[in-house]
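MODEL INPUT / OUTPUT PAIR
PAIR INDEX: 1
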Amino acid sequence: MNTRQRIIVGGLWIGVAALMAITLEPGVPSTVSEIARLFVVVFALFLAVVYLFDPWDIVSRHSP
């Protein structure tokens, strides 16, 4: 993947995290669905970091 493609995919994951964060209630999650939403937000941000910064060369190594 070239840099432009990685920035686009990372931006999309940030958008997913932002949309899911809007659905969260402020405070400590108390139900299973709120915990699942929080997990999705954290996981989407993790994927955004992987695509934007490629800290372990995962994206570069597995691209054709």
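PAIR INDEX: 2
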Amino acid sequence: MTRRRTGLAVVCLLIGVGIVLSVPHRVWQPTVESPNYWEGHTGVLTTLVLQVVFGSCLVAAGFALGFADVARYLPSTGVRLSGLTVLVGSLIWYSPETVPVIGETTGEIYLVRAGVFALLVVGVGGVLARYPPSRRLGRYGGGVLAGGFSLLAGANLLRWSLRTVEPQTGALSYPPLGVTAAGTLAVIVGSVLLGAELRSRDDAPRWLWPLFTLSGVLTVPLGVAPLLQYNEAIGLYCLAMAVVGAHLLVK
């Protein structure tokens, strides 16, 4: 990876993360003088939603520029470890009984889910290290997919942070929804691009590329169309990643 691309990736990540993390402060600030501010000014949140979507796109771009090149230096033991971590994380999300046990409150559940998405990023790194993409399409696909999981983790962290803002109002779910939208779309695009790259590799199992492609495509009707009710789509994707994790663990 060239210094120029490394610098661009770092700049995108830093600016994107900074923009998204500024949202809780911008939501909290008006409530200092008027605790009921957001009950009558929900339209103002539109600018915040656009802000977090823009910041989220920068985060995905940063991952796309540098993630695949970094992942290829993961040692063979690291590939197996990534398989184990993504397998554990996927099963934690997929079991409806597990998350409430680990996190008893809603805020704690958001933190657990954010950790699961972080483990899925590790799984994508394991796939790229085990089957290094030879074309730019595959490198960007893996990076965008990892960025999408990172954004979904960020959306859960944003929900957790905004729950501390008083008063609690349903309107405060809009900024995290913007991150969720960008993250879900990144998961779709990254999955299709990575699946196309894996199809051209002779050393990759034949079932791996359709698994990524189909799980990504199914995220469209399940995750984007019905008003971004994405839990079902991500639950399905976590099940697919559990299969990938088992493959990396035993390969």
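PAIR 2 NOTE: The chain has a mean pLDDT of 81.
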